[in-house]
Amino acid sequence: MYDRRLLTTLAIVVAAVASAAQAGQITSRAAIDFEISKPVRDLISPTAGKTSWIHARVNPLAGEPDNGARGTWTRGKVPVDPLAALSRNPFAPTPPLDLLFDGIANPFACDGCSPPDTNGDIGNKQYLQVVNATKIGVFKQKTGKALAPPFDLGSLWTSGPCAADVGDPVVLFDGRAKRWVLTQLANANAVCFAISQTNDPLGAYFLYTFDTVDFPDYFKIGVWPDAYYGAANQSSYAAFAFNRAKMLIGDPSAEAIRFAGETNFLMPADLDDTSHPHRGGYFFTFKDDAFHGGADRIELFQLKPDFADPGESTFTLINTFPIASFTYTVCGFFNFNCIPQKGTGRKVDAVSEWPMQRFAYRQIGNQQELVGNFTVGGGTGSPGAAVRWFELRNTGSGWSLVQEGTQDLGDGLNRFMGSIAMDQAGDIALGYSASSGNDFPSIRYATRHPTDPLGTLGAEQILKAGGGSQTGSNRWGDYSGMAVDPQDGCQFWYTNEYYDMSSGSDWKTAVGAFTDPACAP
Question: Residue 266 burial by CB count (10 A; 0-12/13-18/19+): exposed, middle or buried?
């Protein structure tokens, strides 16, 4: 273990670097703490959940005039999304499940806590799932059998802010390095990273604590060859680059570079193969004409960090893509009482202000591909949540918008909480929650082939039918997780939450895997 006093001194002497960067102020800071964990298999796993707890989602416009009622839905009757009917391709098959198993459930995770923020990733031998409070589940790849009891992420630390489980967790598999990357928030404006020393998720981890200047609400990460890229909802939306090279070898001097000043949340790109794209990680956000000004659009940014000379780092808007008109926010800005459920007056949060994870990157031949999604209003249900998804492509002459669609089947269901990915054959899979006043929340998914009509998804499949509704908090999960097996490049893995019977907070999670038969490993 390294001397914490030395690390604190390191953090103090690393000066903040200011420049007139396009997106605002840039700062560079070394990790404020580092240690090496015991192997997970040597930890004593808890047998019960923590006390009741609801994780906040911080409103970045709290206190501003008209807060809580801003969003294009307030114009009166919300227009039907122009892509909804055009995006349906019911005769195109979506593959059935190869595998379905139960993930971590409440109250084991956290007695009475919400939302679970369910996500996961698939490695070479294991599937890791993470939920709030913060529990990590390790499952065998082929069968879904739990290989160990879920463990607390905070238990890897011996002390400090990361020893407590604050939440907003994310797990990713770094396929190039064959390492696991686990993150969560910490109090005192910090974010916690645990990097596995090998590809064994039950082994030991390099542990980093980074000062993020402001509290890093809704922190998300993406794996890239030259850095781990992150983003957070802070006093202004911020993008981060963390020194991946140092973190993989357990160098305690690993530093983070931060750019602040954007006007909507920035979702970092996450590499889904072992290709080596150019230096600099991508981020996307979306903007609405009435709320943000200008046309309805997707914006693509690139952060190029220079860890040797942080002042030379750049964060640049590299392209803007006008998209079909959409209704920004389903029920109004930060109105959590939104999506109806069967058998209860409790409505849940659609999280329609921000992009949904992941922003998945893949290289297919000479094509670079990026796919993303976000929740919009204007669906045919009530109040009309639907998932807008898109594909960007670069064949060497710059990024262009290849297609976009809106997942809404005209059946009265609200679809939200999406996650998207692409396999090595170019097939796309979108997973999401679906709910209405006549339907319990369920987990569903749909796919498309590269030869299908642009902007369309095939017939919807039910991954897990809900048997109840959430009657307690209005905080449904803030995100879900779609991933692709890094070994065969074909099998999709998706996890989300559901209820098997109505209750205040006894949510369950499911993990399903499916494969497009046209994808050859």
Answer: buried
Q: Which of 495, 479, 483, 490 is nearest to 518 (CA)?
A: 490
pTM of the model: 0.93
Closest CA to 206 of 245, 169, 170, 165: 245
**Interval 490-508 mean pLDDT:** 96
Helix (H) or strand (E) holding 4: helix 4-13
Q: 229 near 303, Cβ under 8 Å?
A: yes
Secondary structure of 233-258 as H, E, C letters: ECCCEEEEEECHHHHHHCCCCCEEEE
- C-alpha to C-alpha distance for 186 and 292, rounded to whole angstroms: 30
Structure tokens at 292: 């943000």
**CA-to-CA separations, 379 to 72, 79, 418, 436, 519, in angstroms, rounded:** 14, 9, 14, 12, 31
pLDDT 10s digits, 157-214: 999 999 988 889 999 999 999 999 999 999 889 999 999 999 999 999 999 999 999 9
The size of the chain, in residues, is: 521
- Which residue, 412, 414, 368, is CA-closest to 391? 368
SS3 230: strand
Produce one character per residue of 456-483: b if its CB has 16 or more CB atoms within 10 Å, e if not.
Answer: bbbebbebbebebbbbbbbbbbbbbbbb
Quick one: the chain helix, strand, coil %, rounded to 5? 10, 45, 50
- In tens, the pLDDT along 236-287 reads 999 999 999 999 999 999 999 999 999 999 999 999 988 888 899 999 999 9
CA atoms within 13 A on the CB side of 500: 7
DSSP string, 162-191: GGS-----EEEEETTTTEEEEEEEETTTEE
* Gyration radius from the chain CA atoms: 21
